[in-house]
Design a protein that fits this description.
It is globular and about 35 Å long. By secondary structure, the chain is of the alpha+beta class. The protein contains three helices and six strands; from the N terminus they run αββαβββαβ. It has a six-stranded mixed sheet with strand order 3-4-5-2-1-6.
Length: 120
């Protein structure tokens, strides 16, 4: 992981934790060819309003700490699954039932998964 990408993943994680996002998983796709990015950071919030609060927190943390802005955000309208695009890192913020349904963590069997413990 390049230092810049490491810092980006770290700041994304801190932004999620700031708003009590749960079950954070970092999916390392760097060893897999033809993927759209290098990392997924996946988490969940308990309600659409918490999902949106996590989105805002991640954007703020990343912008403040790295100067980077998300290239795009999708899913804001219903806030069941929001994706933030930071080129090398895609952040997926789910409601629990949507996360369970899509199971992104398991799309690439050989991806390295890192579970980040919940802060309580």
């Amino acid at each position: 992981m390049s230092n810049k990408t490491e810092i980006l993943v770290q700041k994304i994680t801190e932004g999620i934790q700031e708003k009590k996002g749960k079950k954070i998983t970092v999916v390392d796709l760097t060893e897999i060819h033809d993927t759209i990015c290098k990392y997924f950071v996946i988490c969940q919030g308990n309600s659409p309003s918490q999902v949106l609060a996590i989105v805002d927190s991640v954007k703020e943390y990343v912008r403040k700490e790295t100067g980077e802005k998300a290239l795009g955000a999708d899913g804001m309208r219903n806030a069941q699954w929001v994706v933030l695009d930071y080129a090398d890192v895609l952040v997926h913020i789910f409601l629990p039932e949507a996360r369970e349904h899509y199971q992104l963590e398991h799309l690439w069997a050989d991806a390295k998964l890192t579970e980040i413990p919940d802060l309580d």
